[in-house]
């Protein structure tokens, strides 16, 4: 079985950067970001899937229309929900609480926020519904969760990857009882 290609694209810069945006529905700085759209314009994909948050979905709509491809909106591709920290700058948060979260995001999630394992679970469910060459426009946390689900890397392993705005991660995915993948490529020049 040859599997399918899964292209994960981090949205372009939001209007405000440097914040834990999570589920805050921040609009994109430039919905038709030429660099972002050019990066994926020639990918051989059969459909586009996007997070429902505007910083991803607005560009996805432009790209799907330009390519004449079907577009699905799937909230499972949202960023990690940072709860009470959502929309705040990390420097404004209690340092010890933030350090505990980065060290163990399951035992120490943000107050009222989502655990790392919950993000992995919903992204795993989303991947399980894909069977053809697909481009997903999403968020850095969801991309890292997908990589963790598909390769077995823990949060420390995937959080070590730099995924700036516009980063494109390509994986060959083999479906089945236990999803697995091979990393094909990563383009991570910052567009922010």
From TrEMBL:
Which Gene3D superfamilies did the record assign?
Answer: Phosphoglycerate mutase-like (3.40.50.1240)
Cross-referenced InterPro entries, in alphabetical order?
His_Pase_superF_clade-1, His_PPase_superfam
User: Which Pfam family is one of this chain's hits?
Assistant: His_Phos_1
Q: What is this protein called?
A: Histidine phosphatase family protein
């Amino acid at each position: 079985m040859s599997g399918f290609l899964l292209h994960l694209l981090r949205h372009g810069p939001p209007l405000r950067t440097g914040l834990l945006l999570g589920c805050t529905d921040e609009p994109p700085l430039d919905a038709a970001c030429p660099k972002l759209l050019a990066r994926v314009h020639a990918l051989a994909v059969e459909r586009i899937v996007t997070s429902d948050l505007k910083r991803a979905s607005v560009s996805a709509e432009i790209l799907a229309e330009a390519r004449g491809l079907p577009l699905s909106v799937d909230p499972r591709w949202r960023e990690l929900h940072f709860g009470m920290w959502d929309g705040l700058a990390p420097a404004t948060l209690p340092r010890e609480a933030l350090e505990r979260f980065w060290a163990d995001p399951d035992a120490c999630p943000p107050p009222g926020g989502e655990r790392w394992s919950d993000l992995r679970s919903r992204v795993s469910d989303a991947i399980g519904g894909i069977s053809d060459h697909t481009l997903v426009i999403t968020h850095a946390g969801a991309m890292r969760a997908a990589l963790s689900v598909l390769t077995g890397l823990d949060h420390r392993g995937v959080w070590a990857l730099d995924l700036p705005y516009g980063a494109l991660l390509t994986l060959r995915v083999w479906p089945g009882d236990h999803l697995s993948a091979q990393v094909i490529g990563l383009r991570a020049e910052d567009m922010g």
